[in-house]
């Protein structure tokens, strides 16, 4: 079960998620070393792959830097759950295949260090210590597909490859005479000679 790290304050901004002084790289593993540094210097020592962050409202406000998503993902965080998110941070999360889940009452339901059972299909998160279960805003299937692919660019690469394969298969089918554009058997049938009509003509 993933461990929950609670950052209860509202309006945690991108500079607190990853301080601007560390924006000298785009490498997630490097950014991860400084994740949440100005809020909790012990976070990077405590976080484990798959852990969750529970945060207050308007998480990720401030700048539009994608580094704020990369730093948390690089640190191993699998999702952030908050009552709501800054719009740009939420969009950056989807584009990068990172889960940002909106859930009312989430801060009150967890203490730092609790374990959680996160069920994306059911849309629930359960505190395994208390048994309390909360429902979060369902994640659109499209966003789940992007998350599974690892981000928007990877998702598009996969779909471009799939579309190319489909086009290739369709081309082979057309060459074999199946599904040929404009082919209508009735056109050929109506144009074919009618033996009975020919007999009447020559009678």
TrEMBL record:
Aconitase A/isopropylmalate dehydratase small subunit swivel domain: residues covered: 37-103
Assigned protein family: Belongs to the LeuD family. LeuD type 2 subfamily.
Subunit structure as annotated in this protein's UniProt entry: Heterodimer of LeuC and LeuD.
CDD domains reported in the protein's UniProt record: IPMI_Swivel
Top-rank taxon: Bacteria
Stretches the record annotates as Disordered: 173-203
Cited SUPFAM superfamilies: LeuD/IlvD-like (SSF52016)
Pathway participation: Amino-acid biosynthesis; L-leucine biosynthesis; L-leucine from 3-methyl-2-oxobutanoate: step 2/4
Catalysed conversion reaction: (2R,3S)-3-isopropylmalate = (2S)-2-isopropylmalate
Role of this protein: Catalyzes the isomerization between 2-isopropylmalate and 3-isopropylmalate, via the formation of 2-isopropylmaleate.
Annotated EC: 4.2.1.33
Keywords of the record: Amino-acid biosynthesis, Branched-chain amino acid biosynthesis, Leucine biosynthesis, Lyase
GO molecular function, one term: 3-isopropylmalate dehydratase activity
Annotated source species: Deinococcus marmoris
Example of a GO biological process term: L-leucine biosynthetic process
Top-rank EC class of the record's enzyme: lyase
Encoding gene (name): leuD
Name of this protein: 3-isopropylmalate dehydratase small subunit
